[in-house]
Description:
The structure holds 3 protein chains of 3 kinds. By secondary structure, chain A is an alpha+beta fold. Among the domains of chain A are: 418-459 and 612-779, Aldehyde oxidase/xanthine dehydrogenase, molybdopterin binding domain (Aldehyde Oxidoreductase, domain 4, 2-Layer Sandwich); 465-607, Aldehyde Oxidoreductase, domain 4 (2-Layer Sandwich), CATH 3.30.365. In chain A, 27% of the residues lie in helices and 25% in strands. Chain A has an 8-stranded mixed sheet. In chain A, strand 29 and strand 30 (632-642) form a beta hairpin. Chain A starts with 20 loop residues before the first helix and ends in a 24-residue tail after the last helix. Residues 1-10 and 769-780 of chain A have low confidence and may be disordered. By secondary structure, chain C is an alpha+beta fold. In chain C, the strands form 4 sheets. A 5-stranded antiparallel sheet of chain C has the order 4-5-10-6-7. The termini of chain C are far apart. Chains A and B meet through helix 1 and helix 16 of A and helix 1, helix 2, helix 3, helix 4 and helix 5 of B.
Amino acid sequence: MTGQPEAAPVPDPxxxxxxDAWDKVTGRARYASDAAMANMAHAAVVRADRxxxxxxxxxxxxxxxxxxxxxxxxxxxxxxxGRRFGHIVCDHPILAEDKVRYYGEPVAAVVAExxxxxxxxxxxxxxxxxxxxxxxxxxxxxxxxxxxxEESYAGPxxxxxGVKPKADTDNAAHRAELGWGDVxxxxxxxxxxxxxxxxxxLVYGYAMETYNALADWQPGGLHVVSTAQHxxxxxxxxxxxxxxxxxxxxxxxxxxxxxxxxxxxxxxxxLAAAASWATGRPVRVDTDVEGAMHTTRADGAHVTVxxxxxxxxxxxxxxxxxxxxxxxYADNSPLVLTKSVNRCFGPYRVPNLRVRGTAVYTNTTPxxxxxxxxxxxxxxAGEMNMDMAxxxxxxxxxxxxxxxxxxxxxxxxxxKRGLDADLTADLDAVAAELDRHAGRGHEPGVRRGRAxxxxxxxxxxxxxxxxxxxxxxxxSVTLLTSSTEMGQGSRTALAQIVARQMGxxxxxxxxxxxxxxxxxxxxxxxxxxxxxxxxxxVKAACEDLWRKLRAMAAESAGIDPDEATSGGGSIQxxxxxxxxxxxxxxxxxxxxxxxVGIGVVRGHGExxxxxxFWEIGAVGVExxxxxxxxxxxxxxxVTVGDVGHAIEPDLVKGQDLGAATQGLGIALWEEMVYxxxxxxxxxxxxxxxxxxxxxxxxxxxxxxxxxxGAGPYGAKGAGEGALNPVPAAVAAAVGRAVGVWPTELPxxxxxxxxxxxxxxxxxAAGLAKPPTAAGGAAPSTVRGPAAx
Amino acid sequence: xxxxxxxxxxxxxxxxxxxxxxxxxxxxxVETLAPVRLTAAELLRDQLGLTGTKVSCGIQVCGACTVxxxxxxxxxxxxxxxxxxxxxxxxxxGLAQGRELHPVQEAFAAANALQCGYCxxxxxxxxxxxxxxxxxxDRAAVREWLDGNLCRCTGYAPIETAVILAAERTAx
Amino acid sequence: xxxxxxxxxxxxxxxxRVLASVDAEHVPYAGGTELVPAMGLGLRRPAAVxxxxxVEALGRIAVDADxxxxxxxxxxxxxxxxxxxxxxxxxxxxxxxxGRVGNARVRSTGTIGGNLCFAEPRSDLACVLxxxxxxxxxxSGRGARTLAVDELVIGxxxxxxxxxxxxxxxxxxxxxxxxxxxxxxxxxxPTLGVAVVVTEDRWEITVGAxxxxxxxxxxxxxxxxGLDDFAAGLDIGADLCGPAEYKRSVLREHLRTVLExxx
Lengths: 788, 172, 263
């Protein structure tokens, strides 16, 4: 039976739908891929057909003579432009210089009048290479003498959020550590030590709008329309590359067709801009899915966790090693690694901790941010480790977690914000929902397993945000923010905050698209920060607007500003209750004018302590495994959205289900497969993402609203939380179902079949007891590689 | 192998690299010279300015570029524009009647069955085609029919709700 | 997929002219569901496509009750096969298989002829048609010939057609009693397809998708050892769907379920 998913939002006519709904159902929503400019030319990218090689020569003569071609640009044609970008490590050439470092790396751009002419001519660019040793795995890169980058790029001026390029030149792109106490002593004294190793795949975010950029360079200025999640970060890089003032670089970001972190930081914008600079024409650069897979992916990881427990099942120490496969360029991976180090040990009381992380350059597509930002990689081994420990100790896995979870306000990392969540309550909610619908009875040929997992992430990124609210002469309000709308519904939620603060209907609030020419500074759109951090800036802007309105009313009445008060959506002056719109009209002396409020968030007040909030992931899954085919069906998915306060509950649930579904994709299907130097599945036939029929048979979405966030009305962010623990939960549930703990994702049917076979061999040899028929949360003996 | 004999009738037909085509697009007549290499999606988006049709996977797996050709759903990314000759084409821009949204569009908006929106036109067009063939599909039929459309944001459940809602509102 | 390469079009409603136009550089084209992506991915680069869709004879489905067969024109779409009352009545397994090819858009545009002639190994129709012992009519300017579908599809992406030949139609004998088709499809295309016809004394088995081209065998009912040998002897390939031993294991298990444990 296929039950109705409980999380499906039931349309409520009383609530206004998303404000982008009309645009999006009519096809009118404008994305960067729809943007055009007069006299626009098109660039086709010539990409490396090998993973690691010196460029001996590039012959573009034939291409330059091809019909419609305006110019061919290689690294040699970039004149005095900055050659490389990279906000942490400036290691990423706009076009490969001297050597290529991954299969698919851009080597040249052919600019022509039409996409067809550009593509035809791109086939006539000949590149001579001299091959170097290709290092396509982190293990190979760490073991080899061959360097992927010969220089460190360290310099006094670089560094980002305290993360700086390392000084030595080896194949490590970055290293990060965290720890306290005496781990070795604690492990030696532990009642039990449980070790888990797990491999997290190379994942492609597959935002359905693939990376694209349109750039128009003119003397003294640059205008770019792109898919960038963080327009202000892109502006900064472009200003440096083109030696322009920040104000002279305009980055415009219309609706984004999916981001999930994969469009963070700078991608194709420098290439489009350089092509425009070189040809004097506006230039579009588009990618297809293959080009996108050659642009950015998420960090793959090998993580090993060793945890010591006392006889009561309390954690005494955790030692964790993280090795990231970061690809050819650092992009944001140093920060992702740093976050992974912070997030991998779980929201548990860990008296002794040692985490060592290394991000390793390899000759593969560069890795960077992706939804979860290092948390899913760490949680896979970290949370499976808790399940393996539960088995070893004979304690129910939910109970084992309960015994170790941090209490509200507890210290995750010394010096950081205390835990602003009640994880035990969240976990109990997950367990209760999972139990309530537990699959019963025995279906021949099917094995079931259940598991829960919990994560907490230092989210919200840097608390730097500005917002502007402009109230017009009729009392309606325009909100300007550079936060980008990529589907999360930020325009809807932020408008809701303005409506509440200003006492106007949401319909009377307009929200513009981000455009650095007009909209105020925003750090990033990522790390689930918008409602919390941008929301605080918007709230502050509204407070400023009220202040301005009071001052205007007082001035009009000829009284001291302090004598004007506001409340209940109006201004009180000398016993009179004035509507804000009336105050504006009175002050300007006409049915005209507007009042402007500015809101700023920086590391002070509610956001003085970092992180701005801990983003919680608490999920449970029940899976069914087909014994013959190894196919895994998700029978039940439970998510708890611990968001403090849900400004738009449907949108929060939508974020949770969407995030969890991407987690299911990583758990079961998604993996970029390299064979030799080449990516073998650069398309959506062979890179399989979750489909409609993969939807969990039952979906339970719980919202936990305890008002414990630092954001507006006690809100905290959502968007990544429900992804982070899902791969771990699925892996543990499958492990319980088949009787062997998985060591790598995704759990494709063939891999699960191999686990089943291995379990059968073990059973036949009498090495282990079979798992309980229903799997379930009850302890069962599951064989693990280190469970000696 | 025997020597090829001349075929009945005339000799080989000449190959053209561009063809004048005429078709009805959202109710209006369009006549244009289409290069054979041009896809229907490129014609609609780049030459006719109807950018509501989105291109994503490029290999008819994701469904973002779905349009209706003579009432049947087609992946415009893999359909030659010349094959539109003589057909009746409906894109997402052709659904609303003046200010009135099509019931399927209305249902997607009401059910919050979208996030980034890039897949939405394709899902809407596929749903229109589904309801034309099967006005009261059950949930299994909805899943089966839409299994060839990808959405990366929603997790699909709200889309299923929207389709059922649209069916309830439109079924005779 | 990038943009398509420079391409010519030959279009005629006259089969003779179409036949006169087809050669190695001028390739037959109908739905384009295989050819267009292949061109976009740079895997095929013909000078021109020869459109078969306007040739009426290629778009017909004819049920011949006397002969006990259905003739399906090469340019008939999967959707029409799936929905055609005569096909549903006399060839229900084929109708169901056609109704599950790709997705609804592929079924609306893709054709049986394109499917067979592209000879993508991970295809359902070739397996079902070979199991049904269908024959194909092939024509060129030189004349016509009839051959079994089993002889038409000879390898992965390989047919026995000459460059100047086109597939005109497929003639499918009415489905025998005891036929079924099952596939393992965890990805966009099937990992394994198995058609069986069970009679009192025979097991007819055709395996597709996991092999380069469908392989058919006939065993005496109850010949489990023969079944083992057949499964073990198949040249099954490894790919992203899994290693050969996985597919072989699923195949063997499936055959055990449908044949040996059948009531």
